[in-house]
Design a protein that fits this description.
By secondary structure, the chain is α+β, with helices and mostly antiparallel strands. The protein is about 60% helix and about 15% strand.
Length: about 150
């Protein structure tokens, strides 16, 4: 049911989390002058094809978050389950933000980086969590409406 507002919220949240797979999240500049780029799957050396360090937990967590977002869109007939999975997904998104910060700070300490510059894409999980929260509120309103209609019969 694409015409429901909560489906649109969940779809935009899904697109935001899907975009995290394709864009760099941070740049680290150590004293030597070389540039390291942090992406969702690890730390890359200057040319963005040579991986310096691979990070498995962000790969797994981002994949789970994106998959749950996609599945939640199609659970429109089971509103309570949709709300619960969305709440779990919000917690995972906020955990992903913490995990990203942990990895970037860990890599900057390992490389003794002078400058760490974050990208705008680091805000996408927080925006997706806000959209998922708005979807939960809209799903709750739908559920209350359905229960009030059942009560009248």
């Amino acid at each position: 049911m694409i015409q429901r507002i909560q489906t649109l919220y969940l779809f935009v949240s899904f697109i935001l989390m899907l975009m995290m797979f394709f864009f760099p999240l941070a740049e680290l500049l150590p004293q030597g002058g070389e540039t390291y780029t942090f992406r969702f799957d690890g730390l890359y050396y200057q040319d963005s094809t040579t991986i310096y360090y691979q990070a498995i937990p962000p790969i797994i967590l981002l994949s789970v978050i994106t998959l749950l977002n996609f599945i939640t869109i199609f659970l429109y007939k089971r509103r309570i389950i949709q709300m619960r999975i969305s709440f779990i997904n919000i917690l995972l998104m906020l955990g992903y933000v913490g995990l990203l910060y942990f990895y970037v700070s860990d890599f900057s300490n390992r490389l003794e980086a002078e400058t760490v510059s974050y990208r705008i894409f680091d805000v996408f999980p927080v925006a997706a969590a806000i959209l998922t929260y708005l979807a939960i509120r809209a799903i709750g309103k739908d559920e209350a409406l359905i229960r009030s209609i059942d009560r009248i019969r």
